[in-house]
Amino acid sequence: MLDTCKLKSACNLPFVYNKKINTAGTSNAAVPLADPGMYQLDITLRRGQSLAARDRGGTSDPYVKFKIGGKEVFRSKIIHKNLNPVWEEKACILVEHLREPLYIKVFDYDFGLQDDFMGSAFLDLTQLELNRPTDVTLTLKDPHYPDHYLGIILLSIILTPKEGEHRDVDLSENEVVGSYFSVKSFFWRFQTQSLRLSDVHRKSQLWRGIVSITLIEGRDLKAMDSNGLSDPYVKFRLGHQKYKSKIMPKTLNPQWREQFDFHLYEERGGIIDITAWDKDAGKRDDFIGRCQVDLSALSREQTHKLELQLEEGEGHLVLLVTLTASATVSISDLSVNSLEDQKEREEILRRYSPLRIFHNLKDVGFLQVKVIRAEGLMVADVTGKSDPFCVVELNNDRLLTHTVYKNLNPEWNKIFTFNIKDIHSVLEVTVYDEDRDRSADFLGKVAIPLLSIQNGEQKAYVLKNKQLTGPTKGVIYLEIDVIFNAVKASLRTLIPKEQKYIEEENRLSKQLLLRNFNRMKRCVMVLVNAAFYINSCFDWDSPPRSLAAFVLFLFVVWNFELYMIPLVLLLLLTWNYFLIISGKDNRQRDTVVEDMLEDEEEEDDKDDKDSEKKGFINKIYAIQEVCISVQNILDEVASFGERIKNTFNWTVPFLSWLAIAAFCVFTVILYFIPLRYIVLVWGINKFTKKLRSPYTIDNNELLDFLSRVPSDVQVVQYQELKPDPSHSPCKRKKNNLG
């Protein structure tokens, strides 16, 4: 007669039912460890008491994270300036098995900085009673300082079997021996439960709508400075998403006119937390006030103008909020491929055909990314393995794969689809190592401009370091397809570029400051050398050159017309194009930039090692902010010059062709239409723009165009590295056998 242990050995089952479990009744017994059913954990986060102070004012801005098995399953809202916060928030969590404890971590929210740890606690789920509300008091501890008292968190928890998922199970010996179908149904049930739980995690990544927010202005804000004014800016937060507006100096009635988008998740609350702050150099920013927007109260597909009174302060904020249906995003296995289905492919091609130019201008194209596998990844765990997962990002759209545990050559075989809003976006694919009790470890990253993608080609991309300046260990295999409407893409090039709201704050770096200074110096030296060259013509250092310049000067001035300016730029673009196609490419790779980026990487590594040793410069906040401002200005000036150069160097052919089309149009317009008529039309448009559209966001089409052209640093970051055949696991295996 067979016993359950033999069944486990023979069938290679992942676990065994020890006994019949009936959850239909009201049994209050603790759940056995071997129970494999899916459970629903209903948590009410009540409040916190006597939490730790982490801010300079002796308070904190606490919020709570809940994690199971290393995965974050819920995050509470932020309670500002309170050590005894009251949340009264409810969360519904699906749990596959109860071996993993519920991990509670409390943090102090600091916008733009790393949030401060305020304590953590564990809850053993196997000790909970089924179908019975339980009040839980958890004492927060710091693992590094176990004797410190960090306060308590109060919860109410109900653990119930998931209805329809957990059924009576009886694997007696007679049934095991007598029925093959019992074992077969056992496998089917386990696989179904695993797939359904996988679907739950997958759906938690997908957004159900897009929230478009336009921050218009502030009215009668509270004066925080001694001069009776403020330097206000606004922070927005929706779940994990956050956005920070620009700073408006010395005003109580700021005009921002900034637009950005958030994703709206069905599982999470639709509450946007908004706080207004006064920027103070050299000390902590002053709090002006806060307000909230309940998205569930707003109708969809309609723009709402909101005038929000600031609580705990003075004044109003004026917003435009629009809720729209989500763009097409999806995660699927390789067996579900939209582009291989002929009908779906034809529908996608028809959606972005030239005949549908003016249909939904924001929907520029379609992107499909197959994340197939990785090889030879970096070892991140003490076991000599890693637990890799992959994050795929396109602007503010972010999706991730499942984790493959204890593997340096993982296979994901997942397909991600995105809608393209800007063809000049860069696809970022990052590989991380999952860690249970801390943030994931970085393993490698690639950045791929959409315009450089070759459709349908499976390629091995060498993983790069965080700065994208050099290789790290491993390669990742991707297959990418891009379908887009060229006219829509061209029109979108002339409007402001979408800003990433999850970008890291700039920090002061000596190497970065030096790099930006040298980049700007090279741009300035181009102008200086041109001025010296022109001046040498006047000095007749070279008589033939000066004579030719003199004749050219007379000819140009005598025959000059305004249309000749875009015509000359058009000829310059054409000349560089023919140089490139003839093999006489005059574009040189800037080795100076690469050297500086390597120096920056070394400096960053050094900073990471010494992160706990605060340098003197980090303590002088005023000097640091001035240096960061100078560093950013140098970067902007240098990038501006490099982008102009790269436009004429055909670094991005799509943009260079677009520039040629624009120069042709300007040449024809300036040739046939008198200048005064052009200036008249321009002036009328400028003067009446606010009357026609009061809430329009000002933009400069030329600067928007140049923002899409990569700088020299970005050219280095986006450059694809060639894989080293010796790093292939298969190659190494053959060498070892030899």
Automatic annotation (TrEMBL):
Q: Give a GO cellular-component term.
A: recycling endosome
- Transmembrane spans: 547-580, 654-682
Q: Which InterPro entries match?
A: C2_dom (IPR000008), C2_domain_sf (IPR035892), MCTP_C (IPR013583)
The UniProt entry's GO biological process terms, in alphabetical order, are: regulation of neurotransmitter secretion
Swiss-Prot/TrEMBL keywords: Calcium, Cytoplasmic vesicle, Endoplasmic reticulum, Endosome, Membrane, Metal-binding, Repeat, Synapse, Transmembrane, Transmembrane helix
* Domain C2 residue range list: 20-138, 191-308, 342-463
A Pfam family found in this protein is: C2
Identify the domain of life.
Eukaryota
SMART domains in UniProt: C2 (SM00239)
User: Where is it located?
Assistant: Cytoplasmic vesicle, Secretory vesicle, Synaptic vesicle membrane; Endoplasmic reticulum membrane; Recycling endosome
Q: How does it sit in the membrane?
A: Multi-pass membrane protein
**Gene3D superfamilies reported for this sequence:** C2 domain (2.60.40.150)
Q: What is an example of a GO molecular function annotated in this UniProt entry?
A: calcium ion binding
What family classification does the UniProt entry report for this protein?
Belongs to the MCTP family.
Q: What is this protein called?
A: Multiple C2 and transmembrane domain-containing protein 1
* Organism encoding this protein: Ailuropoda melanoleuca
Traced from the root, the source organism's taxonomic lineage reads:
Eukaryota, Metazoa, Chordata, Craniata, Vertebrata
